[in-house]
Amino acid sequence: MLTTHHKNLAAIIHLSTLTKFIIPLGNFLMPLIFWTMNKDKSEFIDKHGKQAINFQLSILLYTIIIGCLTIPMFLFGVLNSVSFPEFWNAYDFDFHLSIHDSFNVILFTIISGLLLAAAFIFEIVFIIIATSKANQGKPYKYPITINFLK
């Protein structure tokens, strides 16, 4: 039987992911604590707890992938567009950045930043939707989530 207490606990599990703004790794630790303490009380709580943790792990994985693509591309773009002095010629210390090459680096950095900002906004929106669904007693499955916990 689904009670108001179970609905509230499921909603708290989803909302506890927002503790990442206060506690480092709070988005993993707090839902994990609430879920493990209450997963045996209700199948509803168990499903919502797994969904919240799976979503946070998926977001972490996607952020790592974007970072692994962005950082090397940015560094290689900067290093390719910087003209380093030749050390065997003591009179040639010409250090400059090509405007054309730096534009590509800046554009790629802006696109990557926008991707990360969009992921952040979607994360907040999906957490609010999941909290609302849990409070209404409805099941919710986060989009683009990899099921680490089944």
Poorly predicted runs: none
**What is the arithmetic mean of pLDDT?**
84
The Cα radius of gyration reads: 23 Å
Strand content: under 5%
Secondary structure: helix percent: 55-70%
Number of DSSP strand runs: 2
Describe the 3D structure.
It is found in: Membrane. Its main location: membrane. Pfam families: MamF_MmsF (PF09685). This protein has a two-stranded antiparallel ribbon. It has one domain (4-80, 94-136). It has 4 helices and 2 strands. The chain has helices at residues 4-15, 26-38, 43-81, 99-136; strands at 82-83, 96-97. It is an all-alpha fold and 150 residues long.
Short précis:
This protein is mostly helical and 150 residues long. 68% of the residues lie in helices and 3% in strands. The protein has helices spanning 4-15, 26-38, 43-81, 99-136; strands spanning 82-83, 96-97.
Describe this protein with a few key phrases:
150 residues; mainly alpha; two-stranded antiparallel ribbon
Can you lay out the helices and strands and say which pair or pack?
Layout: H1 4-15, H2 26-38, H3 43-81, E1 82-83, E2 96-97, H4 99-136
Antiparallel strand pairs: 1-2
Helix pairs in contact: 1-2, 1-3, 1-4, 2-3, 3-4
